[in-house]
Amino acid sequence: MMSSIQPTVNLYKGDKIKGVWNHRQYRIERLLGEGARGSTYLASMNQDFVALKISKDPAVITAESNVLRKFKKAQGVKLGPSLLDVDDSYIINGVKYSFYVMEYVQGKTLSESLMNMGLDQLGRAMSELLKALNHLHLLGFVFGDLKPENIIIEKQTNQVRLVDVGGVTKVGRAIREYTSYYDRGYWRLGSRKADANYDLFSLAVCMIQADPNNRLKRASKDRDLLKLLSQCQTIFPYHSIIKKALLGKYSNALSMKHEIDYIRKRIVDSPVTRQYSRTKKVEIDRAEVISITTIVGLHLSILYLIM
């Protein structure tokens, strides 16, 4: 259930926050984002940049910091930012607010990068995300508010990272924080009960967003995502995968990842799509891509039959 407390905390560049218990001091640099559960700021401490989440509702800080602690259990996979500090601070007329500090993941959001991605880059990013989501699901959680704005392509490593854990929900419970366009309940394609397919649905909508001709806002009037998908020819090689994810046909995130990897290997490396990846101005011969996709579909069917 959402808190009735208005969680936004307005801070400004140069404001200083000192922890009551750990005595660490942070200088506010700028706002990174704010939502229904609090505000996140870029802050500095000893010349290092960090992300600081603060809320008027202490339960939000407790819940989200606990999620980040659980993320550490996924060995070898960075599911989200590393948790650095949890504390309280007396600010704004001596009122005490709870906050936590996490790693600042520097880079571009997926929303800033989607339109410039070739088919290979899109497939690679989705494959990485699905690997991370699979680990999260194995821990018993669903990311929930999965959207391009909550996905960062890290500047130093070029790897895909999940940020903003406000929507992370234990499997079986109701999703408490979501964004309409990425919510299967909004499109009448499923419930808001937390399960692996809820995240895979959101990921499929992210892939639709990679098509520069998508009309997501217009499609929302009719609530017809499948019709919209049929019009997104730029991402045609991934259509069958996206459709399965929208309809909840995958057993887990790894199943979707394997199919994306297979498509990348058989289609994205073909001369047609290599040419597309080099220049976004080249038109894909749809008939040729259909032919290749049909062959790949047959290979996948045979693969499932013999497994």
Briefly characterize the structure.
The chain is an alpha+beta fold and 307 residues long. The protein has helices at 58-71, 110-113, 119-138, 196-208, 216-222, 225-230, 239-246, 253-268, 271-278, 286-306, and strands spanning 16-18, 25-35, 38-45, 48-55, 83-91, 95-103, 107-109, 141-142, 151-154, 160-162, 169-170.
Features:
6-stranded antiparallel β-sheet; Transferase(Phosphotransferase), domain 1; 3-stranded antiparallel β-sheet; 2 domains; 10 helices
Describe what this molecule looks like in 3D.
With 307 residues, this protein is α+β, with helices and mostly antiparallel strands. It folds into two domains: 16-103, Phosphorylase Kinase, domain 1; 107-306, Transferase(Phosphotransferase), domain 1. Helices cover 38% and strands 20% of the residues. The protein contains ten helices and eleven strands. It has helices spanning 58-71, 110-113, 119-138, 196-208, 216-222, 225-230, 239-246, 253-268, 271-278, 286-306, and strands spanning 16-18, 25-35, 38-45, 48-55, 83-91, 95-103, 107-109, 141-142, 151-154, 160-162, 169-170. The strands form three sheets. A six-stranded antiparallel sheet has the order 1-2-3-4-6-5, covered by helices on one side. The radius of gyration is 21 Å and the shape is elongated. It starts with 15 loop residues before the first strand and ends with a helix.
